[in-house]
Amino acid sequence: MTIMISEVYDALTAAGAPEDKARKAAEALTKNDDKLAKVDSDLAVMKWMMGFVLAFQVAIFAKLFLH
Length: 67
Fold this sequence. Notes:
Layout (H helix, E strand, L loop, with lengths): L5 H9 L4 H48 L1
Helix pairs in contact: 1-2
């Protein structure tokens, strides 16, 4: 069973699109939304990793010059 965005489906059918094409278009938008959600979660991990690396580099820099 595939997932579709019901608001998009309703809007397309109200605009006069055939039901099968409206269903396929709504399902296609859902697939793209899933891909974007994965990219967003990967980006959040990358931000945390970069923050850790930056903090570690600042600590090393401070130790070199303040010790």
